[in-house]
Amino acid sequence: MATFAKNEKCPTSADLLAFQLGDLDIECGAELREHLVGCEFCSAEVAFYSRYPMDLEEETTTPETIPAPLRELAEALLHQNASPHSFDKLVNELRAR
Questions:
Q1: Based on the number of CB atoms within 10 Å of its own CB, is 63 exposed (0-12), middle (13-18) or buried (19 or more)?
Q2: What is the pTM (predicted TM-score) of this model?
Q3: What is the SS3 assignment for 7-51?
Q4: CA nearest neighbour of 44 among 80, 68, 69, 8
Q5: Where are the domains of the chain?
Q6: 2 Cβ partners below 8 Å, 6+ apart?
Q7: Residue 25 to residue 70: CA distance in whole angstroms
Q8: How far is the C-alpha of 10 from the C-alpha of 12, rounded, in Å?
């Protein structure tokens, strides 16, 4: 299974948000679009910004580590877990906390 995480080649979260908002110039946007074709993590982050709009003026920080429940939920949403019931299990575990 591939690692679901940003790597040194990934753009910053601020760049991904700017891309989603259409605030990048054509050249930068094209480079980022090319990156998104091969990077599930960055594609998921852009999809997140599409669903939960943010403003570039808001502070964007990158956590050092992704909390385990959030990581498991993201992987389940991307169908990386084998069990079709893994999403429901994760949601129930999060509700129990």
A1: exposed
A2: 0.54
A3: CCCCCCHHHHHHHHHCCCCHHHHHHHHHHHHHCHHHHHHHHHHHH
A4: 80
A5: 1-61, 63-97
A6: 40
A7: 32
A8: 7
Do residues 77 and 40 make contact, with C-beta atoms less than 8 angstroms apart? no
Question: Tokens 């299974």, residue?
Answer: 1
Grouping H, G, I as helix, E, B as strand and the rest as coil, residue 68 is: helix
pLDDT at 56: 61
Per residue in 2-55, pLDDT (tens digit) is: 578 888 899 999 899 999 989 999 999 999 999 999 999 999 999 998 888 876
Which amino acid type is present at position 50? S
